[in-house]
Amino acid sequence: QKPKAAVIVEKIAEEGKKEKKEEKKLVKEVSPKTIEAKKEAGEEAEGGKKKRPWRNKLRKEKAKEAARKEREEEMEVIGGGGEDEGEKKKKKKKKKKRNAVLDEIIKDGKAARERMEEGEEVSAAVASTTGDAKLEDAKEKIKGGIFRFINEQLYTVKSAEAVELFKKDPDSFWAYHEGFAQQTKKWPNHPLRLIIQWLLSKDSGKVVFDLGCGEAKIAEAVGKRHDVRSFDLVAVNERITACDMAHLPEKDGVADIVIFCLSLMGTNLLDFIKEARRVLKTGGILKIAEVTSRFVNPKMFMDAVCKLGFQVHEKKAVTDYFIIMQFAKIDKVENKRPYGLVLKPCLYKKR
Ligand code: SAH
Predict the structure, then answer these.
(1) Which of 73, 107, 173, 281 is 20 to 30 Å from the Cα of 55, by its Cα?
(2) Quick count: other Cβ atoms within 10 Å of Cβ 117?
């Protein structure tokens, strides 16, 4: 008799095969060759009487499409047809789509987690019977997949949606954190180390905000020297205040230093920088450490930050992978929505 774990693994593999088969079938069905062949077969059947089932299918689809268009046009008329209404409709549609995507994300995230748990069960069972190293490997791969999946979500939605995501599925945050820690182990030079060294070189007693703090390593390292306040979407330890860093539960102008170390993840970057400026004192320092490949153009990005009411202090490349930028808050805001404040998502490769 096969061990339970092996049966589960076989089942997973079989499902994968089935999916692939179906995909192939679909591709074949729409290929011009198949359509041509079907046409010929239809024409030859029943002594010249033309039988073309593929045509009926097409007709049906066309009719459906036409009906949909008609409905849409009707709605436009009811809505007044004005540009504003059109815009509103578009926005509503976009929102609906976004919500659907979010639901999909959450559903998939859950499915992924379930798969991970299954993988864990499988590998534990097998380790106890056969000690198969391949399954350990498979488990790691599944975990890596979950991390990459959540990571991508965080970089491609607004932070408010990330908050929702973790509210609906808090476990996915742990999966993300574990994955991130796994990644950083491979880095020869984590920018966090340089930031901590820099903070240690400063006079004591500074109010330091660590935004998107992860495990709040800065507070752990320099919490005795400075007043470090650590914020993240979910609090994984008691040093952390859980919140969206676009809305900090802090008063204006209280911070000497604000740090974003690899944490500018949501697409609402502008909100994060504005919030950092709000809590900073005039002359206070904003430090941003990011993955170099995220910048379309570092100079353009820095110019945009400056327009929001900052002055550049310095820019330093940390190896080829990271850039650390330093700004000081000034009173004058040149542009409230500057061009160029964009970062590309940081997607990790499969191991
Ligand atoms: N700064 C830490 C962690 C980096 S990982 C370090 O260098 O080790 C990025 C972190 O940013 C994650 O923990 C993520 O949850 C957090 N983050 C992303 N968007 C956020 C938001 N809108 N508000 C608070 N934290 C956020």
Answers:
(1) 73
(2) 12
